[in-house]
Amino acid sequence: MAPTSPGGGRTRINVVSDVHGNVRDLARAGEGADALVCLGDLILYLDYADHSRGIFPDLFGVENADRIVELRTARRFAEAREFGTRLWAGLDGDHAAIIEQAVRKQYAELFAAFPAPTYATYGNVDMPTLWKEYAREGTTVLDGERVEIGGRVLGFVGGGLRTPMRTPYEITDEEYAAKIEAVGEVDVLCTHIPPEVPELVYDTVARRFERGSRALLDAIRRTRPRYALFGHVHQPLVRRMRIGATECVNVGHFAGTGRPWVLEW
């Protein structure tokens, strides 16, 4: 359990999501706060705004990154997978080991940038099996679990649901619902993906609906947390809305803004 804010005064948490390799701003994200909360997606595999950044262009070049973004944006996922398969076929070495090496390099830098204390959960592009190796003292990893900060209980559920993108940490609806159930009633419900509400899951730049969780929506209606915080949708149609007694907030695309969202009580 985390202590109340020093001096017994107000508690402030800074919240980030979708860090996607933004080490520089992550190192400052906890300034002025009693704790940093991270809702996942630390890894940058491919930057859709700058195709020269990420693991994919490092391995296959910017032109190939341009092409795969074009296919994915057009929702031609089967063609994108076939294109990616051809690229990987031309690469020597164990493909899983190559990816893991690149991810490890990013994790070493990102976890070193976390302030203490940090409370973090996984995003859909993260590799949970590696986190225990890089989480230092002062960083608490939570998934389907709760923690008390400044007298309020926060629940954390990481990962995403199954999609044609096949990102690393996608789980079944049943697995996700079980983690939501395990968290139970909390003051602040912290997840990577949003509840399944059209305005919250639609990305206005990608021009598509991302996957939200029906189980999360049901839990918000049933348990009525004060806040439901999430990320995942980088450019949502609506960033903030009420569902009954709960203020639902997309905390923002940290890779693009470099600014945390602030919650005080």
Structure explained in plain terms:
- There is one protein chain.
- With 265 residues, the chain is an alpha/beta fold.
- Helices cover 34% and strands 21% of the residues.
- The protein is built from ten helices and 15 strands.
- It has helices at residues 23-26, 55-60, 62-73, 77-89, 95-113, 128-134, 173-183, 198-201, 214-223, 254-257, and strands at 12-16, 35-38, 118-120, 139-141, 145-149, 152-157, 160-161, 170-171, 188-191, 202-203, 208-209, 227-230, 240-243, 246-250, 261-264.
- The chain has a six-stranded mixed beta sheet with strand order 5-6-9-12-14-13, covered by helices on one side. A five-stranded mixed beta sheet has the order 4-3-2-1-15, with no helix packed on it.
- The longest helix is centred in the middle third of the chain and has 19 residues, at 95-113.
- It starts with 11 loop residues before the first strand and ends with a strand.
- The relative contact order is 0.17.
- The mean pLDDT is 94.
Which key terms come to mind for this protein?
single chain; 265 residues; alpha/beta; six-stranded mixed sheet; five-stranded mixed sheet; 10 helices; 15 strands; globular
Largest sheet properties: 6 strands, mixed
User: Averaged pLDDT, please?
Assistant: 94
Oligomeric composition of the shown chains: single chain
Low-confidence stretches: none
Q: Count every beta strand, where a strand is a DSSP E run of 2 or more residues.
A: 15
Beta-strand content estimate: 15-25%
Using the alpha-carbon principal axes, give the shape: globular
The rounded distance between the terminal residues' Cα atoms is 17 Å
Helix-strand pattern, N to C? EHEHHHHEHEEEEEHEHEEHEEEHE
How are the strands ordered across the major sheet?
5-6-9-12-14-13
Strand pairing plus helix content: what structural class? alpha/beta
Q: Nearest-angstrom radius of gyration?
A: 18 Å
> Helix amount, in percent?
25-40%
The tally of helices reads: 10
